[in-house]
């Protein structure tokens, strides 16, 4: 299926664009370029949500959403020895970013690479290298610059509040495994860009008006709190399907979420998603995520009068170095296509 490879390519391209929450202008430029190629109308809201109008029916509009912001960090302070102290953007343990390469983006447009270490990184020097607590005080950025003091770093133009992005390390194996940071939710975003192309190419005949929305503040909890068009009656978040524990989900299937930490998703929508998955003849699971909440739930909290649902390709090791498989991307894309064909 040509469109599956298209989705995979888009996901890889998106993963390579740094976009920690609050620093999404570069990826927004990418979206503008892609949507202009497809010929659809779009708008960018004040809260930096990117909304695409795919047309078709006049009422009962449906909106699919994914988020383009990712986990990241900011410079909290500059240490006297020239190292940088971090403050997290989004929810993850510091152990998930230890020994990762990163980029610091200054307010005047400069970029500096570095590596994230714990403060006692060498087993030949420190007795507690393996046991030291991984927290804000013990994790730091070592810049790839000849700096020895706070003043040296300031001369580079680095200051508190500068954004820090982690190396995504995106890899597609010959066996179809896609490994990368930020598959949450670059996978969903790439799938929705491909769905837009499918609609443009008249591969399917949707029964309803369709919007796609890419949000910029999901990882901090308010991505879809504003900006949903007035004629939308249904929203479906296309995010990751969490894998692990006693969940049914795996990296080869599309996961349909029946309930997460925000409560149950709309009964009719979940039932219809299950029906579409069966008709599309794809591998799917129905799951309950204990420590998860989506942009669709945020929209409900914001007071939108809509029905809501959540699906996504199964992603292992969420908020770490994540992995999925091309099969899960294909299953998600086919489910969305079939869903749009249902009354």
UniProtKB/TrEMBL annotation:
It comes from the Bacteria. Keywords: Aminopeptidase, Hydrolase, Metal-binding, Protease. This is Peptidase M42 family protein. The active site is at 218 (proton acceptor). Its cofactor is a divalent metal cation. Pfam families: Peptidase_M42. GO terms for molecular function: aminopeptidase activity; metal ion binding. One of its GO terms (biological process) is proteolysis. Belongs to the peptidase M42 family. The keyword Hydrolase applies. Zn(2+) 2 binds at residues 184, 219, 319. Binds 2 divalent metal cations per subunit. Zn(2+) 1 binds at residues 67, 184, 239.
């Amino acid at each position: 299926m040509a469109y599956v490879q298209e989705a995979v390519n888009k996901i890889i391209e998106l993963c390579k664009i740094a976009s920690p929450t609050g620093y999404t202008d570069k990826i927004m430029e990418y979206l503008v370029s892609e949507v202009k190629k497809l010929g659809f109308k779009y708008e960018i809201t004040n809260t930096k949500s990117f909304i695409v109008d795919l047309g078709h029916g006049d009422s009962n509009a449906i909106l699919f959403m994914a988020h383009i912001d990712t986990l990241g960090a900011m410079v909290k302070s500059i240490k006297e020895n020239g190292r940088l102290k971090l403050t997290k953007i989004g929810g993850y343990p510091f152990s998930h970013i230890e020994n990762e390469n990163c980029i610091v983006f200054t307010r005047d447009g400069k970029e500096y690479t570095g590596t994230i270490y714990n403060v006692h990184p060498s087993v030949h020097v420190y007795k507690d290298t393996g046991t030291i607590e991984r927290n804000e005080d013990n994790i730091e950025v070592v810049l790839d610059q000849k700096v020895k003091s706070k003043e040296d770093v300031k001369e580079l133009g680095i200051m508190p509040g500068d954004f820090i992005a982690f190396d995504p390390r995106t890899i597609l194996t010959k066996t179809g495994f896609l490994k990368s940071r930020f598959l949450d939710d670059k996978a969903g975003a790439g799938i929705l860009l491909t769905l837009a192309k499918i609609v443009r190419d008249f591969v399917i005949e949707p029964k309803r008006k369709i919007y796609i929305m890419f949000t910029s503040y999901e990882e901090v909890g308010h991505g879809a709190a504003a900006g949903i068009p007035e004629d939308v009656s249904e929203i479906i978040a296309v995010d990751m399907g969490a894998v692990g524990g006693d969940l049914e989900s795996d990296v080869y299937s599309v996961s349909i979420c029946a309930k997460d930490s925000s409560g149950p998703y709309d009964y009719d929508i979940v039932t219809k998603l299950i029906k579409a998955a069966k008709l599309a003849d794809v591998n799917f699971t129905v799951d309950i995520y204990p420590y998860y909440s989506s942009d669709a739930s945020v929209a409900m909290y914001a007071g939108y009068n809509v029905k809501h649902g959540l699906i996504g390709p199964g992603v292992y090791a969420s908020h770490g170095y994540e992995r999925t498989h091309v099969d899960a991307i294909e299953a998600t894309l086919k489910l969305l296509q079939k869903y749009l064909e249902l009354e």
